[in-house]
Amino acid sequence: MDGIDGKLDELYEEIDGLMKNGAFEECDEILRRVDVVRTDTDLLIGYLTTTLPGKSKLHSRPGFYKQVEEELKRRRNYTPCLLRGLA
């Protein structure tokens, strides 16, 4: 798959599979490895969306969320509604 849609599909499939199998530590590691500065906005939102159901078990997610929020503000494409419900 190529393009942003393909990347999002792969992301959702990987994270969803890990969380269904209880591999929350592995999901945490994935979030820690994301280069927020170099990652496309749609993918950053995808990471937050797909990890939302497991947020209480993903210890690195609050910090990841904050990094994404700060990076989107730096890019000047942040609006409060963009991340609404994803914290």
Plain-language structure description:
With 87 residues, the protein is mostly helical. The protein has one domain (3-82). It is built from four helices and no strands. The chain has helices at 3-20, 24-33, 41-51, 61-75. Helix 1 runs parallel beside helix 3 (41-51). The longest helix has 18 residues, at 3-20. The radius of gyration is 12 Å and the shape is globular.
The DSSP helix count reads: 4
Mean pLDDT, nearest integer? 94
Largest sheet: none
Helix content: 55-70%
Cα gyration radius (Å) = 12 Å
Any low-confidence stretches, pLDDT <50, length ≥5? Answer: none
Shape: globular
The total strand number stands at 0
Beta-strand percent range:
under 5%
Count of the domains: 1
Order of helices and strands: HHHH
What structural category arises from helix and sheet content? mainly alpha
First-to-last CA distance: 29 Å
Describe, in short, the structure shown.
The chain contains four helices and no strands.
Could you name the key traits of this structure?
single chain; 87 residues; mainly alpha
Task: Describe the SSE topology.
Blueprint (H helix, E strand, L loop, with lengths): L2 H18 L3 H10 L7 H11 L9 H15 L12
Helix pairs in contact: 1-3, 3-4
